[in-house]
Specification:
- The structure holds 2 protein chains of 2 kinds.
- Chain A is an all-beta fold.
- Helix content of chain A is about 0%, strand content about 50%.
- In chain A, strand 8 and strand 9 form a beta hairpin.
- Chain A starts with a strand and ends with a strand.
- By secondary structure, chain B is mainly beta.
- In chain B, about 0% of the residues lie in helices and about 55% in strands.
- In chain B, strands 2, 4, 5, 6, 9, 10 and 11 form a 7-stranded mixed sheet that branches. Chain B has a 4-stranded antiparallel sheet with strand order 1-3-8-7, with no helix packed on it.
- Chain B is globular, with a radius of gyration of 13 Å.
- The chains are: A mainly beta, B mainly beta.
- The interface between A and B is medium-sized, with 24 and 29 residues.
């Protein structure tokens, strides 16, 4: 079973629209970490944010905001007033607390391709 | 940016040949990881290392081996490459095993097996 589900494979919006990327995760651990990474067309993976399971406060960074809800096992990412430069594949990832040989490994969702049109 | 260098960046080779990919870091981080990225799968862990000469398997380790003789280098070897191993390979590093610090990734190696 997928530990991280990104149901939206592709999203297209027009510049200045707001867009939300969904992420649903599955874990039995009480301590875990959630991440978002951005992969622009150039191919590198850029770390955006990390949240731990004990901190449900929403976070805002410029045009980016994240909504973490343990009750629904979701960690959604919203881009406000999208720009063409936001076009990329966005990955949500989960890391569970060290147990056995997991050693902080990341479980990735399959990614959401966001295209922002001018 | 984290000091991670992957080499080569691109490689085309034939089925049955051995291939070695190198990941070099200048951060002195203890933990290193190899992932592969395939369309529709996101990134999947191949192998990881938690110290010099300490390695373990990830979820897609069949057909791959790794070695870490120095803190800064983590090698991924395909002993006899197959077309199913055509992929983009990413190395990642982390200073903390509990993932309190995010993993940082290299720029990737695009490998094509013909």
């Amino acid at each position: 079973a997928q530990k991280v589900t990104q149901a939206q494979t592709e999203i297209s919006v027009v510049e200045k629209e707001d867009v939300t990327l969904d992420c649903v995760y599955e874990t039995r651990d009480t301590t875990y970490y959630l991440f978002w990474y951005k992969q622009p067309p150039s191919g590198e993976l850029v770390f955006l944010i990390r949240r731990n399971s004990f901190d449900e406060q929403n976070e805002i960074s410029g045009r980016y905001s994240w909504n973490f809800q343990k009750s629904t096992s979701s960690f959604n990412f919203t881009i406000t007033a999208s720009q063409v430069v936001d076009s990329a594949v966005y990955f949500c990832a989960l890391s569970e607390e060290y147990r056995g040989s997991t050693l902080g490994r990341l479980y990735f969702g399959r990614g959401t391709q966001l295209t922002v049109w001018p | 940016d984290a000091g991670i260098t992957q080499s080569p960046r691109h490689k085309v080779t034939e089925t049955g040949t051995p291939v070695t990919l190198r990941c070099h870091q200048t951060e002195n981080h203890r933990y290193m990881y190899w992932y592969r990225q395939d369309p529709g799968h996101g990134l999947r862990l191949i192998h990881y290392s938690y110290g010099v000469k300490d390695t373990d398997k990830g979820e897609v380790s069949d057909g791959y081996s790794v070695s870490r003789s120095k803190t800064e280098d983590f090698l991924l070897t395909l002993e006899s490459a197959t077309s199913s191993q055509t992929s983009v390979y990413f190395c990642a590093i982390s200073s903390d095993r509990d993932a309190r610090q995010p993993q940082h990734f290299g720029d990737g190696t695009r490998l094509s097996i013909l």
